[in-house]
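User: Show me an example of a complex going from sequences to structure tokens.

Assistant: Sure. Here are the input components:
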Amino acid sequence: MKAGTLSKALKSGAIWGFIVLELIFFSIAGEYLSLSDKAFMDWENMLLLLKQSAPIGIIAMGMTIVMINGNIDLSVGATYAIAAIVLLESMTWPIFAGLGDMVIPVAWLLALLVGTFLGALNGLIVWKTGVDAFIVTLGSMLGFRGIVFMFNGENPTSHLNWTLVDFAEAEFLGLATASWFLLAVTLVIWFVMTKTVHGRNAYAIGDNRDAAVNAGIRVGPHIMINFAIIGFLAALSAVVFYSESGSVNPNDGQLYELWVITAVVLGGTKITGGAGSVIGTFGGVIAIQLLRKGLGHIGADTSTVNLVIGLILIVVLILDRQLNVKGKEELKV
Amino acid sequence: MTDPVLHLDDIVKTFPGVRALDGVSFSVMPGEVHALMGENGAGKSTLMKVLGGIYQPDGGSIHVGKERVTMAGPLEAKAKGIVFIHQELSLAEELSVAENIYLGELPRKSFGRVDWHRLAEQTNLILQKLNVGFDATTRVGDLSIANQQMVEIARALTVDAKAVIFDEPTASLTDAEKVVLFDVISDLQKEGVGIIYISHRMEEIFKITDRISILRDGQYQGTVNTAETHEEAVTQMMIGRKLDLSRNETHHELGDVALEVRGLSCGKLYEDISFEVRRGEVVGFYGLVGAGRTEIAETLFGLRDPSAGQILLDGEEVRITSPNDAIARGISLVPEDRKGQGLVLGMNCRDNMTLPQVQDLTSGPFVAEGAEVAIFDQYRDRLDIRTPGWKQLVGNLSGGNQQKIVIGKWLSMHPNVLIVDEPTRGIDVGSKSEIHKLLRELAAQGYAVMVISSEMPEVLHVADRIVAMYSGRIMRTFTSEEVTEDSLIQAISGLGGHEAA
């Protein structure tokens, strides 16, 4: 075996190993600690887990592209909330009153358009001003959230359309609608990142931007497209979730950006860009959801869950660093 | 007479306050290797950026063949047959060799999919021509620097090129790989491709080029036929004066042994290294990139832990655990990468110079500005640093003056041993000889100086003794009387056996 092959295999497979570890731990710990007598590794429970992963997971796919690209998007949570409001509110607009249930696709389309537009706006600012994406999207995170509050104050925006709820709660081949969306988005983004020129260019730009410019890749528009994609996916995530719940709080989606980034980083995407994989991100999303659910299963409260996930993230990054060190002779920094 | 493949006519490019290019004209004939020379800042890279469409010229015209063209960007330049070979930094390390070679124009199938099959096929054809030991799917980050440079060179062969521009292509190549590069160049020549060759290395220029064009301060100085000129004349055109290129003849009294190393090893990076440096002596470390010279310096400066061996300072065994420790014991390292490791480019001259001792320069809780300025003034005069004042940002200085700031920074710490890694990399000819003179003077003042260099004229010029290294081992130590260029090359190529070490 060539040197480094092991650590490489460890790194790419690490997230799945972690998931297996979680499953074993929660199954055993659940036997002793759980309040319910249902096993943790229950098929129904796992399907539910996949469904609950969808909102974070769909956005995480977009974040993977943006982070491989060497950028970051902190505004996804706020974009998610705006898209949710557009979705629910537009269904009550008088101009669509005559459409009957046909208002659903219209509302979906509007929400997705708004998300895409907001994402593209972020991208345009990053492209044209050259300001770091972290700062730009930090600003838009606050700004977009401001818009959410301006719209309806502290009050939730609600609208239940039963046809829509039926669709969202439907199951096809045993999987919930939301799960299907998550799987489809994962597949499409995986295809884009591994098979298409756009995806490969995303890696090249994140890896060495100068090289990409020298090779004639139009970096600015490329970045903008990726921001539009993550905006679209944030909106899609909202559309999938709120079709079912029918009520959006102005605080919804807060901290989503952090969950999403955590999942992407756990999945092995380099925070500096240039490396990462969609499949890894999928693993990261599942791992986080497992942890939240598993800790709940053994009776831990939300604050404990956050503490544990935070610790795990730091441990993972330390491990990653250790695996990347080239031995004892490594230069000390 | 044949028409030139590429002709630049009276190119003018101005930046706010600077006339970077002032009426530059030159042309490349088919099958010709045309060297472009000039000191750093003379306008070579600006000219190349104009040619590549990254900058638009403010005046003048570019002709490819007979056609007048405007370059809108790098892709358009490539489409017109103008190919750039950048220094190795222009690669994406996480991507495969094939993706890097065809970066920006990966072959496509429907839905914007990459045509992996065609990509691998085309790439392997090119790699066969270059006779390299890796294939299309190798990750670029796993290649040696020299092989990465070969990947960069492979880009020249992806299109039907009319003119290929090589920008310092040999900066990191070994001698064996240079031969392959020169073969590639002569193949291109035979196909009637015009070559622009940018390099600071005179011996290469005289070996492979047909004509030399020279820039100075953005102005075109003229074109000469290589066969009819010599190094001195070219240098004079570049810097406007003569250079002292003689071998180091002067010797001064040597003092006691300041630094001795016995059997030092660090994993596989280098093994069983023993040498000593006396006060007043300059010891040159010569070898190829990757021979382990920099790693020795880093160990002495406390950046790496040795796995075996001893380090003795003034006859006393020491363990150096950190740079802090090294500085306290009187060892200073002027690092290889001046801009990345040696300086904080966004800080002014004074602050850069006093950086390692700023915690000692205080009056009460505050930094003693006056003391800092005094230190700066002292070393500015001593090293002849040319800057408008201490407030000047280091990033705005020329390479030579930047290097003097780094040297001054360490001298102000009063070291006994001064380690200088590649002191003149990327520094133009004029400042080079000044730095060389400075190193000789420092030794004369009683410092023990270690100079690590990949340039033979440099070690021959400054060193009293030369340690030749090959692949982590000392092959031979020469005194400046006995060294010849041939024996030195043999030693660093691993030939010539282990004679007296």
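The lines above are the inputs; the final block is the predicted structure for all two components together. Residues 5-33 of chain A form the longest helix (29 residues).
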